[in-house]
Target: UPF0725 protein At2g20620-like
Amino acid sequence: MGNGMWKQEARDTTEEPPLINEKLEDERPQESTYIKPHVWNLRREDDDYYNKQRADDYYKQQRADFELYGPNPRIDLFGRVGLHCYNLQKGTNLKSLKVLNCDSWITSLVTHYIILEAMDPIGNSSCEFETQVRYAVENIDCLSAITTRCKLKPKTPEEEDKYYEWNKDLVDNFFRGDMPEWMREDALTGRDKLQYYEMKDSELEENEWLHLYAELALFSKWQTKLNEMESAKPFEMKKVVVRTKENVESWKKVKAENAIFYISFKTRCGLDFNCIIRKTTDGKPDHFSLEVKCLM
Model:
């Protein structure tokens, strides 16, 4: 997989979104009366869809849908992905409360620009948080998601001016290329055992973001079954093994910017899954990548 989709696909956030002939299933409950199709379902019939007026209408309709229906579960999911990136980089533990607004568009990727309300458990103070996350499924059951913006609001003028496109060439070579297979049976005792660490039960309970990784894994398989995903939670973390490039202390492996997670978990309805999560960064502020491969 190896982030191939990101080679030429990082687009400026000011790019006008084309409306393409692609349907993203809207999982929000709808009443029996007729409801105007979601903006994603509109078809491009001529080049007028690319002009500024169409783009403005597009965003107005999208925001109107948001006001009417509330956020789609996938918006909440990727909002939490961006918040997880911020927590990792800043050493914080902010919790997502609710999505306040979202703009989404499709090129060859799906891009979400999300504003959410977050809460800091220290002092129980709330704040507004913004993030931009792009994702695509390159192969069956394999998903790549990249965060290119994650900031608290309001931003300073200096922060406003700084935006960097994702650069896969800056990712450590050890974590590039095709996604790895499931770890070998002797991973924890073999030649490279110092690269691996099995998380303790107490660590599985403390690190709630592991459930986010499991949720992303299910999303890669059940994108059109978001209601089933919701009913599958909470998950039971059965076993998590972390691999890093070098031998470092166990707590540093868990928090490392570049690491591979081998996760075994069970859903509330009793289904067992294994997933591989490759977490990487290109070293730029706000940048964070999660590549996901889900196995039954």
User: Anything to note?
Assistant: The longest helix spans residues 52-69.
